[in-house]
Amino acid sequence: MKKYSYILFFALIFTTKIFGNDLLQKAEKAYDSKKYKEAITQYEQLLKDGFKSYELYFNLGNSYFRDKQLGKAIYNYELARKLNPNDEDVRINLGIATSKTIDKIDSKENFFISAVKSNLLSSFTTTGWAWISISCVIVLCLFIYLFVSTGNMIFKRISFLMILALVIGSISTYFLGYSALKSKYDNKFAIITVKETKIMNEPTATASSKFSLHEGTKIRIVDNNGDWVLIKLDNGNEGWVKLPDLGII
Questions:
Q1: Is the distance from CB of 241 to CB of 231 less than 8 angstroms?
Q2: Rounded to the nearest 5 degrees, what angle is found at the Cα of 109, between the Cα atoms of 236 and 125?
Q3: Are residues 69 and 7 in the same domain?
């Protein structure tokens, strides 16, 4: 019985892969034929079936962009960037799509500092920062051993300078990795995916409207209350928005 269970399990995996490849080919063919809605349907089905990769989100973002659904295009580009922060194509297409959004929100934080901080933290994944920090510590230990064991003064001086540099590097990469991890879990962002949504004073449909936001605008999630989410913009404005109007990154 156990033997048949294994056979059934591997057969299921094999069938799923074939089905996934078939959908992928259909989606790519539809996109090449400029049948963007059809491509979107196929890519979305792949996601529902459990297939996930930055290429899949990137292709889906391209399909939505071609279909003039800017909010959903930006949302999928953001998901692609989350999986692969260093991909140049994702970065370029996200920049192009973001430049077409209606809402231009001024940030209270200095733009240059904010951009440098964001780009620096997103240069590597949290796992990447961890491996860099561990590598620095390993190399640091090697240079400490060299400094202690060698009798050559030139090697001692070089080792001492490298130890200082690696201590600074280890501490810096540790804090950068910690900041990236903290940012990942403390700062939850979302994209407005509908053409326009009203931001309310309270989490009810009968509350008064504070202002409106349009598709593609990136917002920070502060709290949630059932089907409503409390959001905050870079300029400090806050309000409640319906959860279905958002794509949470």
A1: yes
A2: 105
A3: yes
**DSSP class of 69:** -
Q: Three-class SS of residue 116? A: helix
Q: Do residues 208 and 90 make contact, with C-beta atoms less than 8 angstroms apart?
A: no
Number of domains forming the structure of the chain? 3
Q: What angle (nearest 5°) sits at the alpha carbon of residue 186, between those of residues 73 and 44?
A: 25
Q: What is the pLDDT of residues 219-248, one digit of tens each?
A: 999 888 889 999 999 888 999 999 999 999
Looking at residue 202, its amino acid is E
Q: What percent of the chain has pLDDT over 90?
A: 57
Q: What burial class does residue 61 get, using C-beta atoms within 10 Å of its C-beta: 0-12 exposed, 13-18 middle, 19+ buried?
A: buried
Note whether residue 109 is domain-resident.
Answer: no
**Which two structure tokens, joined as six digits, stand for 197?**
């949504």
Please state the pTM of the whole predicted model: 0.67
The domain of 130 spans: 115-185
